[in-house]
Structure prediction request, 76 residues.
Amino acid sequence: MPDCNIDARGKAARFMGGIASIVAASIFAFLMVTDVVSIGFGWYAIAGAYLGGAFAIYEARAGWCIVRAMGIKTPL
Prediction:
């Protein structure tokens, strides 16, 4: 497991962002399935949102941020 490089506020922000991304992707997937919204690349956007949300949740659980690991300072 990577070394912890974020504090409790950063973990909470990443966790909530990950959950929000997965919820939004689920809503968009429902709209795509029911043909309310029809976008050609929509399923790629849904997959990206799911994967991004899952990765954000992993970062929150591990206490590790890939952006901070690359040396970029983040506000949290």
Q: What stands out?
A: The helical segments are 8-33, 42-62, 66-69. The radius of gyration is 15 Å. Residues 8-33 form the longest helix (26 residues). Residues 4 and 63 are 5 Å apart (CA to CA).
